[in-house]
Specification:
The protein has a single domain (7-229), classed as Alpha-Beta Barrel (TIM Barrel), CATH 3.20.20.70. Helices cover 46% and strands 13% of the residues. It has 12 helices and 8 strands.
Amino acid sequence: MNHIFRGTGVALVTPFHNDGSIDFSSLSTLIDHVITNGVHYLVALGTTAETPTLSSEEKKSILAHVVKHNAGRVPVVCGMGGNNTAEVVKLIETYDWTGVSGILSVSPYYNKPTQEGIYQHFKAIATACKLPIILYNVPGRTAGNILPATAVRLANEFSHIVAIKEASGNMKQCMDYVQTAPPHFAILSGDDDLIVPQLAIGFSGVISVAANCFTKDFCTMVNAGIAGDFTTAKKLHYKLLKGIDLLFCEGNPAGAKCVLNKMNICGDTLRLPLVNVSENTKASINEFVENSIDN
C-alpha cells in the first residue's frame, strides 16, 4: 500500500520549561531529532502531548510551531477529537490547517456511546473536515471500542477517512480490521510493543510514543517489518522491548520525557495531574538508555 501515513508516525511530546510554560526551542530540537532519525510523519496534539492540560491558544501555537519548524520535510497530523461532537466540529472550523496533512481523531471518551453513536460522531467530523482523517481507537482510555464494522462503514462512506490507529491490544480484532478494510484504509498500530507482530498480519505502520526517544532503532525496525525482513525487525523488537515497557510503566509521557531529558533533548517537566516517574524507574530508564541506545 502506497499510503501517506505508512511507516512510523511520532506522537510528539510537548516540552515545558520548569515553570510549566511551553518550551518551543526544545520542541524544535525534538522535531529535528525525530526527522533526522527517520520518522515518516509528525503527530502534534495527541495524548502524548498532554493535550488535556493545554489551553486552546496553546494548542494552536504548538501546531503552528510544528508546521513552521517542520518546513514541509514530512507530513504533519494534528490531534482533533473529543466527546462533544458539536465542539469538535466547531474547532475544526476555527483552525488554520495550512501545512497540515490530516487529523487524528479519538473515539468519544467517558460518554460511552453505542456503535451507532460512534458512527454519527465521526460522520459529523468527516462532513466538517475535508482533510484526511485517521480514526483513533484506544479503549483503555476511552472506555469504548470502535468495532471493525463501524470503522469500515465510515471508511466506505467517506473516502477521506483513510486510516485507524488501533490500540485495543486485541490481536483478533486487529486481524478483523486487516481483513475487512477497504483498499484506501490503512491499519496503524497504537501499541509500540506489538508493532512487529502487527506488521506481520498486515498493518501499514504505527503512530508511536517510543519514536520520540528510540527513533533510529524504532524506525529501522518498522521499515524492516514493512519490507518483510522480520529477522531484523525481531532483533530490534527485543532490543527495544524493555525500554518500551519502561516508557509506559508509570504513565505516558512521563517515561518518554525522562528518556528525552537523559538524551538532552528536552526537560522532564509535566503538567498536573501527571507527575514524574519514580526514582527507581528513572534509574532503570537511565541504565537502559546508557546501555542500549545510540541515537
